[in-house]
Amino acid sequence: MQENTTQEKRANRALLITMAVVVIAVVVIAVTGFLFMNRPDSYVEGQVEGTTVRISGKLPGRVVEFYAHEGDTVHAGDTLVHIHSSVVEARLGQAESMHLAAQAQNQKVDAGTRSQIIQAAANLLSQAEAAVTITEKTYRRMENLYKGGVISEQKRDEAKAAYDAAVAARGAAESQLSLAKAGAQSEDKVSAQALANAAQGSVNEVEALLEDSYLIAPADGTIDQVYPEVGELVSMGAPVMSLLKHDNRYVVFNVREEMLNDLPMGKEISVMIPALDKKEIDVKIYYIRDMGSYATWRSTKATGSYDSRTFQIKARPVEDVPGLRPGMSVVFK
Questions:
Q1: Burial of 192 (0-12, 13-18, 19+ CB in 10 A)
Q2: What is the pLDDT of residues 30-82, one digit of tens each?
Q3: DSSP-assigned letters across all residues of 112-134
Q4: How many domains does the chain have?
Q5: Considering the entire predicted model, what is its pTM?
Q6: How far is residue 70's CA from residue 82's CA, in Å, rounded to a whole number?
Q7: How many CA within 13 A on the CB side of residue 252?
Q8: CB under 8 Å, gap of 24 or more: what pairs does 269-274 form?
């Protein structure tokens, strides 16, 4: 009986020792895992960015042909796409016709007034003088009848108004005849020349639109994306494709404000590019900006902690890095 009790005690002691070892092992594993989980906090991951230029034009029309496609490398001045617009070409013909008409009118003004116009103005003056004579006689008769009490004052006034209108019409006819004989005034000549210039401006405007029927590359780069297909209509100012410039690569990081003391403006730091076989490159910080309240790290404790804002940092490579492309990951320790 005593031997059974001794064996039971030994079994319990062994079980306790085993449990203690398991607990210690779990604690060690937990602490080790916690340390390894927090280790990546010493790394900041960002990515490579680049300047993208949207290729668009002033000409609304239909895409006829692409001379460059997604992924192609182009140089400044290369033709990228052909856009055709029958509407704008029709507008050009209309503008040219209006320009010819304005030029003809301007030449007509410079040539002076035709004899037929002067004769027509003289005939109008003769008619106006005859009308004055008739309305004057009518008014005199109405005045005498009014004084004799035969007609009302209204009838006399109507006759007077007709006479005054005839006198005014005669004055206008005299002015027209005088202008016809004198020829076009300097203001008329200036106005005609201005109309001709405006018509020429309309022609130039349409021709400027047609210049965008062939869009060219504004800089060296790679065609990043093409939006329409051949045969589709594009509106004025709508982007046709995007060009990723070759001469502007930079890296972007989002860091908490506690790190800003170690990342001042103008500092050169070393970063690692995993896509380039973990190559280390030097970049220079040129941009630091607060990302706003939406990117603030909120404290989860009531006391003993504080909120931390997020800042965006941009840095350019100090030297040219072959193979560096936008979208690649960047790691900063």
A1: buried
A2: 767 666 655 445 688 899 888 888 988 877 888 888 989 988 989 998 989 88
A3: ---HHHHHHHHHHHHHHHHHHHH
A4: 2
A5: 0.47
A6: 16
A7: 16
A8: 269/315, 269/332, 270/332, 271/46, 271/315, 271/330, 271/331, 271/332, 272/330, 272/331, 272/332, 272/333, 273/48, 273/321, 273/324, 273/328, 273/329, 273/330, 273/331, 274/328, 274/329, 274/331
pLDDT along the chain (333 residues), means of 10: 61 71 75 59 81 84 87 89 73 65 62 64 79 82 79 78 81 76 59 64 63 82 88 85 86 87 89 90 91 58 63 90 86 86
Tokens of 296: 């603030």
Query: What is d(CA 171, CA 168) in angstroms, rounded to the nearest whole number?
Result: 5
One-letter amino acid at 224 equals D
Last residue of a domain, one of 223, 242, 261: 242
| Interatomic CA distance for residues 80 and 217, integer angstroms | 7
Closest CA to 70 of 84, 59, 81: 81
**Tokens 């004052």 belong to residue:** 153
CA pair distance 221, 175, nearest whole angstrom: 70
CB atoms closer than 10 angstroms to residue 163: 20
> Quick check: is 190 in a domain?
yes
Contact 221, 243 (CB under 8 A): yes
CATH number of the structural domain spanning residue 74: 2.40.50.100
Which domain does 107 fall in, by range? 90-209
